[in-house]
Each structure stands twice: as structure tokens, then as C-alpha cells.
Amino acid sequence: MEKLSDEILVRIFSFLSARDICRCSKVCSGWYRLANDFHLWRKLFIESFDKFISDSSYYKNVFPTQWKELFIMRSNWLSGHCHVQSLHKKAITPEKTEPTKIVCLKISKCGGSVLASVNQDSKLVHLWSLIHKKSLHVVRCESVVGCVDFGNEGSQSLLAIGLYSNKFSIWDFHNGRIILSRKNITEVTRDQMESPRDTGLPPATAVCRVNLVDNKLATVTSQCVVKVWELDFNQPGRISCYCLHTLTTFKPRCSVLDIQLKNGENDVWSVSISHAAEVLENWNLIGFQTVRFQGHSLVEEDTGVNFKEESVDNEEAFLIAKFQTWMGPQKEQMGSRTSVSCLSISPCTKLVTSGQNDNTITLWDTATQSCRHTLFGHTGAVTCTDVDMHKVVSGSNDRTVKVWSLENGDCQLTLPGDHTSGVSSVTFNDHWVISGDSSGEIKVWDFAVNSLSVLQSLELPSQQSQAL
User: Which Gene3D superfamilies does the UniProt record give (predicted)?
Assistant: First the structure.
């Protein structure tokens, strides 16, 4: 074996499993160096996980030294191997108020190392470093924050913030300030701006969901009024915007909803929304619809025909008619016999997950609008879900976070280290699963380095906050 060249040894190692390659690395320093050759780990990664990679450009962005780390991380996801470190919350002194429950968590889409968190009835957005497990910034807003969303590659330094005061704002990381603040609906009554009495629900015009993709922003109010905005980045340090489309369901107040923007071929965009509303006692209907558009024009989904007319009057008449029917009757109503607490649309928009108060999760096929799987395993009401192309992560009042397979609906793992109270929000990407609970605690599971930490609440320095 000593006379064999490095090329031949690497070729021999390529027929071994990952476990056997790791054993070979312990033989001597020479074998250790060869066992870490990136060609070996790239081959193992493609053989094991290529079916989970939906974007062909994924491989172009991987450095040679990353293949082994990526293989280990993906293996941890499938096997559930995590090293758990229990960190206790900071003691609450009489002068401090205990944090309220976490209602929104979002991980940055580019780089994926920044977390935004929002507490219930709070005017603050906390930004955290997931690498260093510490606070980066705190954004102070003029009213209660309803939702946040990070931009993607075309708007990666931006954070969209939806407010209860019928406004949305854009926060710029580079400048450390708000660069856009805009009313969402221009003409509203005072009653619409106020929260319904004794219900605990947000105002009718509260922006409760935002989705920022490239230069497009989608906003949704509590009454399911959807607006799509075009953002103009031409002026350095400033953003201007104008409304492309206003869509409405003409339905009663929705209890939960989710929205997703997608950029398709030939700059044809789509906006998809799923919503749930209680129509009878213990009976909830779930809806899902998609509208495709190109600029100011709507595009017929079946034929790809652009319906923009030469006459402005005709165009406006068509758009008004289209807006009133875009959430029209469905092929089959997706119904739940128990209260729906959360909804998530998959990135491919072919599936919607709903969490129910009867401890179950339902996977709905958006094409047939029928149930694909019902997931059993939680012992408390499912309060939050998040979904990607292949798995669902869910949180429950039973204080656990679980990972499920979209393919067969099986529970792949229950993350170790239960919360001390019911889980209220979850989010994840390839590296991390982050969950928040009703006591304001945030837990981070790091699948790259097998660690678990707890992010503590942060004192708000006056010079660190910004007013909208």
C-alpha cells in the first residue's frame, strides 16, 4: 500500500462509505490527508443527496473545502444527530418585564446567518447573528410589528417589516436605518385601524404578512387584502415604490394565512396565497389560489395569454372583474373539522401545510385541493409550521419541535431539548432550525456544528434604535 500513488489510493477510497473513509483517515497522516480529498466527499454528497437539490446552480456555489461539511450536515438532518447544549435563560429581575411570546422568526435568505425575531404586541424587531449567537441590532417601530421578511439575492441587504398601523417599512442593513415607510391602504376608516374589542385580533388593516423577492413586495392585511408593490432601487440609499396590483378575497376575516411571490420565465411573476377562515363552529375552510402577472397586466394561467388591453378603461374593467373572482370557488374545498392555527406554502407552491388544534398537521395538494397526508405525532395543538421542498418543521404546545418528510409524511426526528413552554414560531434552512416559545425564549439547532443555544433578550440602548 505504501507504494501506491495518491491518485490510486483516492480511487480506492472512492468505493468506500463515508464511515469507512473516516476510519481510513485514522491510519496515518498521509491517509488522513487523502481521506479529506474534496473529490471523495463531492461524490458521496451527489450520490446521497442530489435528489434533494432542486436548484442546479447549487453546486456552482460550493467551495471544494465545503463538501465534507455539507455531507455531514445533510447526514445530521436525515439521522437527527445533534449535540444538545442546555443553556438557561437569563434571570428576570423585578425591574425587567419577562419577554412575551415569539410570534415571528425569519432567517436571512442570502448567507442565512441573520435571524429576525418579533415578540407579541412589540414595537421592536430583534436581529441576531446565528454564527456568534448574539444580538446585532434592534429596530424600534412606530406601532406593533406584525411580520418581517428578508430580501433574496436581488434585495439581500433589506428587511421588510409589516405594521399594525396600516404601514410597511424597509430596513437597510448597510445604512442601519429605515429607507422606506409607506401606507399600505390609502383610504381607511378609523374603525378599520382599531383592533376588534375583546378578540385579541389585529386591526382589519394590519399588515400581517410580507414577502420580499427581488424588487417585488407582497403585503397582506388581516382581512386578506393583497397588494403587490414594485420597488425602485435606482436612487442610492433610497427606495421608491408603487402599487402594481390590489387583490382581495371579499371573505370574512381570516384567522391565519400565508403568501408567496415567485419570479418565473419571461419576467412573469406569480403571487400565491393560502388562508383559513372559520365558517361554522369547529369547521374551518382553507383556500389556495395563484395569480400570475407581468408588470401591470394579469396573465391567464392556462394559456399564458396576456390580457392587457390597449384601452385603459377596458383594462381597468377587466382587472376589477378579475380581482373580484381570483379567490372564487375551488374544485374541492379544503376543510378542517378543528381550528386551523397555522399555514405554510411550500416553495414550489404545490403543497400547503396546515397545523390544527387536534394535534395534527395536514398536507394539502394545491392542484387537486385535497388532503395528501395527515401527520400524527404531537401530543399538543400544532401552533406553527415551516416547509421547504422536502420537509416540514413543526412546533406544538407539547413544547417539542418535529421534522417530517413531505414524501411520505413520516416523522423523521424530534429535536432534542424541549422548550419550557409551548412553541409559538419556527423557521429553518439548511443549517439551522430556530424555534421560539410562549415565554420569549429562542432556541437554535445548528446542524453544521451539532450545537444548541438559547438567544436571550436584549436591553435596548437608546442610540441603537431607530424610529420609523
Answer: 1.20.1280.50, YVTN repeat-like/Quinoprotein amine dehydrogenase (2.130.10.10)
Which amino acid makes up residue 220? V
Helix ranges (H only) for 237-396 are 312-325
256 and 237 together in one domain: yes
Which cell is 383 given?
401552533
pLDDT of residue 302: 43
Alpha-carbon distance 393 to 384, whole Å?
8
Print the domain residue range for 40: 6-79
pLDDT the model gives residue 251: 56
The Cα 107–Cα 293 span in angstroms is 27
Give the tens place of pLDDT for each residue, 34-61: 888 888 888 888 888 787 675 667 777 7
Q: What is the pLDDT of residue 328?
A: 43
Per the structure, how many domains does the chain have? 2
> Residue 272 burial by CB count (10 A; 0-12/13-18/19+): exposed, middle or buried?
buried
Residue 320 identity (one-letter amino acid): I
CA distances from residue 380 to 39, 387, 461 in whole angstroms, order as listed: 46, 20, 38
DSSP string of 391-437, one letter each residue: EEEEEETTS-EEEEETTT--EEEE-SS--SS-EEEEEE-SSEEEEEE
| CA atoms of 41 and 71, how far apart (whole Å) | 7
Which residue blocks in 202-341 are alpha helix, DSSP H?
A: 312-325
Q: Which amino acid is at 454?
A: V
Whether 70 contacts 78, CB under 8 Å: no
Contact 453, 133 (CB under 8 A): yes
Cell numbers of 416, please?
432534542
pTM (2 d.p.):
0.79
CB atoms within 10 A of CB 459: 8
Query: Is the pLDDT score of 77 beyond 80?
Result: no
Do 212 and 352 fall into the same domain?
yes
